[in-house]
Prior knowledge:
By secondary structure, the protein is mainly alpha-helical. The protein is built from 9 helices and no strands. Mean pLDDT is 82; it is low at 1-7 and 258-262.
Amino acid sequence: xxxxxxxxxxxxxxxxxxxxxxxxxxxxxxxxxxxxxxxxxxxxxxxxxxxxxxxxxxxxxxxxxxxxxxxxxxxxxxxxxxxxxxxxxxxxxxxxxxxxxxxxxxxxxxxxxxxxxxxxxxxxxxxxxxxxxxxxxxxxxxxxxxxxxxxxxxxxxxxxxxxxxxxxxxxxxxxxxxxxxxxxxxxxxxxxxxxxxxxxxxxxxxxxxxxxxxxxxxxxxxxxxxxxxxxxxxxxxxxxxxxxxxxxxxxxxxxxxxxxxxxxxxxxxx
Length: 270
């Protein structure tokens, strides 16, 4: 199955675009862009958001989300064209009754769901048991992906809160110096204190929430692909012709994803 994601690098382009918009806005409204840099405030917002997330979520889950950010930023896609080609090859030999050739084709399969389903079919397991095993795996993937997206949404909730907390700390410090500083210094200190609120809003609405939505979109695409694999395994069990399997999977993808390409290529007889 060819790549289905409409545009590669869209996440990276969006993040860079956000930074450009912020930079242009800052340059248009401030004479010195360095006034928007507040390292202690940034540490408070990022550090507070991370620590609060670690309190509310398992450390292993947070680390898993951190590792998955690379795939989100680079829009890594699920290219299972080769896997579908292997499925059609397995279907050809399985339908012909050549189990050794089907086993050999199965060894080329990298997708764990397809590999498990095809192996169970070749082992002559009941189709109800095969579907049950595959559905358990799909449910596990869905639960894990939803949990990861929820972690990002949790971070989007915490970030503005810690931004406000940083602002309150700055205001407390400012009020403690009233009467000892000039009016110009008060304005500078007030601006410095409010920057943490800005950081919290930027992190929540330009990074964490969009990444959570991206992860949910990726999960829906992954579930569609996994359901296609299940349909293919069912047709494999029924010993359907590879051409029929190819057309059925293409139809399924067209029904569940706009502009989806026709999966795989038909095997050639030896």
